[in-house]
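Take the subject:
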Amino acid sequence: MVLRIILFLSLFTNISLLSAQWTQKANAPVTPRRNTTGFSINGKGYLVLGGLNSTSPTHYQDLQEYDLMNGTWSTKTSFPGTARRGGVAAFNDTMVIVGMGWDNSTVFKDLYRYFPSTDTWVSITNYPGSGGREVFAVIANGKLYMGAGESGITNFYNDFWEFNFSTNTWTQKNNIPFSSRFSGVYFSHGNNIYFG
């Protein structure tokens, strides 16, 4: 596994490169929120978790599925953990892992695998790393890689971990070679992992 660090200077956008025009799609049927987690698998997009930071914080655990072909949203089985925001989703063509985050008082390290074909969730071993919210997370080579993140307003990390699905165990790897951080951009492509 080769770890590649890159710096992103542009935003990911939903714009047609051929026409250079935005196209309005159906609005998600959810209460407006921030720190929402999203993923895509099997040609569909998903929206889960999120919350509002106010004097009376509200957090969500509903799961919404967007069907691009039909342009419609449908509600799926809610995330089984506590409602939260600042979570993470790691996904590839065959699996999705969702979890972590916080609810303004508790930092969570629980993780769940989502199976779109049966609309079910199964827990996996909790993340043992330092950060609990807004960590980097990707799936590559059939393994889950997570690291960095934060556990409070001033506690940021750069530790790095590998999860083996076959043995259901975590192994600590060398720290990510940049200063402690959270809420970055991350993805995998082939056998490489990219953080920025």
Observations:
- Confidence is low (pLDDT under 50) at residues 1-16.
